[in-house]
Amino acid sequence: MEVMYFVPALSLDANAKLKDYLSKVPCCDELQALEKMSAQVWIVVLTQKLCQQTLATCKLRQQLNPGQKFIFLVDQKELCFWMYRYQLQATAVIFCYAQTWYQELMAALQELEKATDLCFKCRGKIIKVELEQICYVESHCSNTHAAVLWLVDKQTIQVPKNLHVLEKENPRLWRSHQSYLLNPGNVYMLDKLNATATFVNGLKCPVSRQKFKTLAERFA
C-alpha cells in the first residue's frame, strides 16, 4: 500500500515525537505536490496554516478518485469543523497531541490494508465492487484509460481506470501479464505448460513466463 504524508512547513514545532516519526517517512510540504502526486493513502497533518487550502485540495482529489483515502492528524479539535464543511470522507481523524496518536495511526493503516472494495465513478455515480468478486482485470482493447473486470459470476464491468492505476490503488491485484491483473485469492490452478491461471469459476487468463515463477511460489 503506497502511503504519502503531507506536512505543511513549520507545523507541529512543539510535538517532538511526531516530528521524529515524520522525519522517517515520505513527506511533502507543498500543496502542489498534494494535488499532483499519486498515493493510495494520504496522511495529512492539518494545522491552522493552509487549513482550507489543504482541505480543498483533498476534496478535489476525492472527487476525481472516489477511492482516494485520507487520514488526518489535527492539532486543534476546532479544525474538524472545516473538515465537516468540506464534506471529506476520512478513514480516521487523529488528534496529534493525544498520547495514543501513534497507536491510532497504525490501527487506521492496518484497517486500510484489509480494505476489499474497488471504487470508481461511472456516469456520475460511485460504484463499489468487492475484491472477492473479481477474478482478473483485462486492459481495454480500444481505450487506454479503461479496463474490464471479470467477476466470479462471469459478468464483466468496464471501469474508467487503466491497469497501471488499478495496480497502484489495489496492491492485492497482481500483475500477471502486460495486459492483465489477477486476484490471487480466486485462483484455483496455475498451468505452466499453457502459461495460464484458472479461477474458481473456470475462467482463465494469461500469465507471462517472467511472472509465472513468482506466482507459482505464491501458491506453493
Write the layout of secondary structure elements.
Blueprint: E1 3-6, H1 16-22, E2 27-28, H2 31-36, E3 41-46, H3 51-64, E4 69-74, H4 80-85, E5 92-95, H5 101-113, E6 117-122, E7 125-130, E8 134-139, E9 147-151, E10 156-159, H6 163-169, E11 174-177, E12 180-182, E13 187-191, E14 196-199, E15 204-206, H7 209-218
Parallel strand pairs: 1-2, 1-3, 3-4, 4-5
Antiparallel strand pairs: 6-7, 8-9, 8-12, 9-10, 11-12, 13-14, 14-15
Structural class determined from secondary elements: alpha/beta
What is the count of β-strands? 15
Q: What is the CA–CA distance across the termini?
A: 24 Å
Order of helices and strands: EHEHEHEHEHEEEEEHEEEEEH
Strand adjacency order, main sheet: 2-1-3-4-5
Key traits:
29% helix; alpha/beta; 5-stranded antiparallel sheet; single chain
Can you give a write-up of this model?
This protein has a 5-stranded parallel β-sheet, sandwiched between helices. The relative contact order is 0.10. It has 220 residues and is of the alpha/beta class. Strand 9 and strand 10 (156-159) form a beta hairpin. It has helices spanning 16-22, 31-36, 51-64, 80-85, 101-113, 163-169, 209-218, and strands at residues 3-6, 27-28, 41-46, 69-74, 92-95, 117-122, 125-130, 134-139, 147-151, 156-159, 174-177, 180-182, 187-191, 196-199, 204-206. 29% of the residues lie in helices and 31% in strands.
